Amino acid sequence: MGPRNFIVAIVLATALSAGIFVATRLQAPATLNIGFVLPAPTPLPEFALLDQSGVAITRDAFRGHWNLVFFGFTHCPDICPATLQILAAARRELQAAGQDPLPRIALVSVDPERDSPELIGQYIDNFGDNNLGITGNLEELTKLASGLGIYFEKQAGEGGAYSVDHTAAVLLVNPDAEFHALFSGPHRVENYVHDLPLIMAGS
Amino acid sequence: MRTTILLTALFIGACGVEPQPPLVATEVVVTRPMPGMAMSAAYLSLTNNTDQPIHISRVTSAQFESVQLHESSIEDGVARMRAIPVLQIPAGETATLERGGKHLMLMRPRGTFESVSLQFFDDDDLILNVDANVQAIAN
Ligand SMILES: [Cu+2]
Hints:
The structure holds 2 protein chains of 2 kinds.
Chain A: H1 3-27, E1 35-43, E2 49-51, E3 56-57, E4 67-72, H2 79-96, E5 104-109, H3 117-124, E6 132-135, H4 138-147, E7 152-156, E8 162-167, E9 170-173, E10 178-183, H5 189-200
Parallel strand pairs in A: 4-5, 5-6
Antiparallel strand pairs in A: 1-10, 2-3, 2-6, 4-9, 7-8, 9-10
Chain B: H1 2-16, E1 23-31, E2 39-48, E3 54-60, E4 64-75, E5 78-83, E6 87-89, E7 94-97, E8 102-109, E9 115-122, E10 125-135
Parallel strand pairs in B: 1-10
Antiparallel strand pairs in B: 1-2, 2-7, 2-8, 3-6, 3-9, 4-5, 4-8, 9-10
The structure holds copper (II) ion.
């Protein structure tokens, strides 16, 4: 075999193995790291709440976007900002990689007593642009939360201080305002960067 | 021989006599309160260099009206946060305060600032002062 034929053989062999690689990738169902896609997306429960501008919203506020929905509260200095920071970082990475559509981050307050629309708006602005903040009446928030299997409960502390226990999962709501997928953790940037494009592409 | 003794004496004089601080803080991170937010958090490792347990019962800061020891956890998918009345650090051991676990909850900032001082009390005695610059939490 002359040197030229040898190079051709290498090129062919490389192309062949690349072809096999691509074929196996296409055949294997894409596995998700942490995301769980619901067998059938379910419409969000009906609710009447406020966005961060104080504007009355219903579940239609979720339409037209993919939404990463987290239930939390602004007086939570540890787990809530950590989770939102991860979602924001994942979205930045996806954006840098040219992902389209990009999910919007939505924070639903589990502490409407302290979370005014203004406060929740200031808070979510720390985690990127075009986020959605939702707060309002406790009864209406409970409708939304319990309809999605989200638990929250106020826990009294010392001297009138309190915290709110809440489900730590992140939900993905699709552009038809349906609960589409669930991320129960571990919440890591690479897991969201890996799973979100696959889920939004419908694989 | 005399020279050797002299050198040894000098060596001890320079390095050997300095007592180790009883409690040492490392990996200190103090998050900057987000705009409009009444709280923030501090994380650090505390090493007890003594042969007695240390009980951190109180932490104060000039920059915050209230500092509390808290512990976050995620159990059965539920995020919780509870106050820890006393942080026990056994002799020779290190207590780690980190994201999603034990932390100092810093409440009601007094104005704006670039650095924070924290005073740790072992029962009623001031045992450690830590100064740290604040760091942005997100973006
Ligand atoms: Cu806390």
